[in-house]
Specification:
With 126 residues, this protein is an alpha+beta fold. The protein has one domain (2-125). It has two helices and four strands; from the N terminus they run αββαββ. It has helices at 2-43, 81-102; strands at residues 56-60, 70-74, 116-119, 122-125. The termini are far apart.
Length: 126
């Protein structure tokens, strides 16, 4: 009986450690997401434009049911687009992993890609 008690205690300790490790992993990933978000905000800050063709949008985030949470509007002429795409892809992937690790849920509503325009020389959603 004593061996069973020791075995159960060891398993509980192992489970607790795994839970703590999972929490640390989620926190680390969320920290990286915050870093990426700040980088992306800085990268797309200049939304100045001259015409509608000067504006674009990119899917941002990963809903647990699939699809993005929103879209970011930016002016490709003012942005290192490959860098933006790489950062957004990394952010979306990490958020998908966090969703899986935490069992996150969402409303599953599809977020349509916005139409963008250049109004008053600034890219914005129509």
């Amino acid at each position: 009986m004593r061996h069973l008690t020791l075995l159960c205690s060891a398993l509980l300790l192992l489970l607790c450690n795994c839970h703590e490790d999972a929490n640390e992993d989620v926190a680390r990933r969320q920290g990286r997401m915050a870093e990426i978000s700040a980088e992306v905000d800085d990268l797309i800050e200049d939304k100045s434009c001259n015409g509608a063709d000067d504006c674009a949008s990119i899917a941002w985030g990963s809903k647990p049911c699939g699809g993005p949470w929103s879209y970011l509007i930016y002016a490709p002429g003012n942005v290192d687009v490959p860098q933006l795409e790489q950062l957004v892809e990394e952010y979306n992937q990490i958020q998908e992993e966090v969703n899986q690790l935490t069992g996150a849920v969402s409303d599953c509503a599809l977020v349509p890609e916005p139409e963008v325009e250049c109004a008053d020389n600034v890219c914005r959603e129509l």
